[in-house]
Amino acid sequence: MSTPDHEPDASSASxxxxxxxxxxxxxxxxxxxxxxxxxxxxxxxxxxxxxxxLVQRGPDSGARFLLDSDVVxxxxxxxxxxxxxxxxxxxxxATFARGESGYxxxxxxxxxxxxxxxxxxxxxxxxxxxxxxxIGKYRLIYFAGALKGRA
Length: 151
Hints:
By secondary structure, the protein is mainly β. It has 1 helix and 11 strands; from the N terminus they run αβββββββββββ. It has a 6-stranded antiparallel beta sheet, covered by helices on one side. Strand 5 and strand 6 (102-107) form a beta hairpin. The longest helix has 8 residues, at 37-44.
């Protein structure tokens, strides 16, 4: 009588010692991408009061956008400060606004919405370093420079 491939045959089974400890295998986030040395250098050298968005996933993956003015518009429209040319992005999708504690994002009533850390936003949301911002198919990581007056 044969046994299925997934069940060992009792007559031919080798008795390996059973370990009393559990091996931990960390879960890897499939969305986590390695930053290049150039990206790390760009983040470390951000001017005071500015921030950077790094495209982690989506069209133009690896692209960097500097946030260095009081209001930065994002959308598919060619007049936007940051043009994300994909049908999943509204013409006037969102704005980033500089405040005393860094930048915040506001969705401008876009069809597909804007997300911060995978939560859809419906009002102005303050950003923290490492936050994931999703606009259409684009997933961007937010990096903040030193606050003005603290550099």
